[in-house]
UniProtKB/TrEMBL annotation:
It comes from the Bacteria. The lineage of its organism: Bacteria, Pseudomonadati, Bacteroidota, Cytophagia, Cytophagales. Residues 1-23 form the signal peptide. It comes from Hymenobacter elongatus. This is Alpha/beta hydrolase. Pfam families: Abhydrolase_1 (PF00561). Residues 65-180 form the AB hydrolase-1 domain. Coiled coil: none annotated. GO terms for molecular function: hydrolase activity. Transmembrane segments: none annotated. Keywords: Hydrolase, Signal. PANTHER family: ALPHA/BETA-HYDROLASES SUPERFAMILY PROTEIN, LIPASE-RELATED.
């Protein structure tokens, strides 16, 4: 190979190495708030035990309080079309579970008991009583766990395709283990 051909080959390789597809690994992480943007509803944050920051929206008015709990790998936006409709007759609160959306990122057990405890602290800190929990997927599983653990706080449950009642095949389990790794959580930037 001639010197000119090797030189041109090296230039092409260097140019390709600088393309966005190759450079994503060296870029600084983008804060989660910048990625997901504004929720379009009044946003708040509350500090729970162990300095855990939980982001939530608070909309609507009425005699009842509804708390919306998203599923795995989701966040408050999962409820953005539901809250305005139900907020006409009830106070609607939707929280980002720890590790999701604009809430704290960290090393959490991820157990339903952990999230039920977060929900309990959230209810206590906001001085709520006799709430209705609306949970989708994993959020449904959390709602059931919270209702069993803290029945005095929960008046009703609304479960939308709740997790925990199905079984996973070996390939499905492996897919979940592969996709939701400690490293992928660590690489999720904080707000």
């Amino acid at each position: 190979m001639s010197f000119v051909a090797r030189f041109l080959f090296a230039v092409v390789v260097l140019l390709l190495a600088r393309t966005p597809a190759m450079s994503f690994q060296t870029e600084e992480p983008v804060p989660m708030r910048q990625v997901i943007g504004s929720y379009g509803l009044p946003e708040h944050s509350i500090t729970l035990a162990d300095s855990l920051q939980v982001a939530y929206v608070d909309a609507g008015r009425g005699p009842k309080t509804l708390i919306f709990i998203h599923g795995l790998s989701s966040y408050v936006r999962a409820w953005e079309r539901t809250i305005p409709a139900l907020g006409q007759g009830a106070r609607c609160l939707a929280l980002d579970l720890p590790g999701h959306g604009n809430s704290s990122k960290g090393h959490y057990s991820g157990s339903m008991e952990f999230y039920a405890e977060v929900l309990h602290q959230f209810i206590q800190k906001l001085h709520l009583r006799h709430v209705t929990l609306m949970g989708h997927s994993m959020g449904g599983q959390i709602a059931v766990t919270a209702a069993l653990k803290y029945p005095q706080e929960i008046e009703k449950l609304v479960l939308v395709a709740p997790a925990g009642f199905e079984t996973f095949t070996a390939p499905e389990k492996q897919l979940l283990r592969t996709f939701y790794t400690v490293q992928s959580i660590r690489n999720t930037p904080e707000a």
